[in-house]
Amino acid sequence: MEDIVIWGAGGHAKVVAASIRRAGRFRVAGFIDDVNPGRAGEPFCGATVLGDRAAFDALHARQPVALHLAFGHCGARYRLGAELAARGVAFPVLVDPTALVAEGVSLGDGCYVGPGAVLNADARIGRHTILNTGTVVEHDGLVGDAVHLAPRVCLAGHVTVGDRTFVGAGTVVRDEIHIGRDCLVGLGSVVVRDLPDGVRAYGCPAAIKETP
C-alpha cells in the first residue's frame, strides 16, 4: 500500500483521512501542520503530525511521497499546489467509496470527492478542488481549480464555478449559472443569476454584498 501525507491537521483533514482509509488505496503516513509547527510529534487522527513544511521537504527529499492538501483556504491551496507540482510532488485524486462518479467525469490532480457526493455525466472538476460531503455537481458542470464546495452544495446542470471560489454549505445554484473566480457564496444561498469575479454574495435569491 502506497503512503500518502496529508497537508493540514484540522477538521477537514480528519474527513479526508477517513475517506482514504475507507478506500484502502493509501496508508496515511502523517500530517503536516504549517500553521502550528509546535505540534510536531503529536498523535492525530490515527497517525502523527510530522511537523511543518520543512518536515515535508525533508521527507520528500529522502523518498518521494504522495501528498493531499486538506485545508480550506482556496487561494493558499491553489498557490501551494502549483508550487509543489512544479517540484514533482504527486497529487492523487481521492474519491470516497460512497461517492457516485458517472462515466465521462474528469477529475483534476489532487481533488477530493467526499462521502455521498454525486458527480453526473461529463462534469469536469479542477485541481485541488474540494467537493465536500453530499455535494452534487450535475451534468456538464465545470468546477475550476482550488474551489471548495461545502457540504450539501447542489449545482444544477451546466453550472460553471471559477478558480478559488468558496460556495457555502447548503447552497443551490440554478442551471446554466456562471460563478466567477475568487468569489465567496454564503451558506444556504440560492443562486439564480451569474456572479462576476471576486464578489461576496448570499441570500435567497443570492445578492452581491461586497465587490473588489
From TrEMBL:
InterPro entries: AcTrfase_PglD-like, Hexapep, Hexapep_transf_CS, PglD_N, Trans_hexapeptide_repeat, Trimer_LpxA-like_sf. Residues 3-79 form the PglD N-terminal domain. One of its GO terms (molecular function) is acyltransferase activity. It comes from the Bacteria. NCBIfam families: NeuD_NnaD (TIGR03570). Belongs to the transferase hexapeptide repeat family. This is PglD N-terminal domain-containing protein. It comes from Piscinibacter gummiphilus. The lineage of its organism: Bacteria, Pseudomonadati, Pseudomonadota, Betaproteobacteria, Burkholderiales.
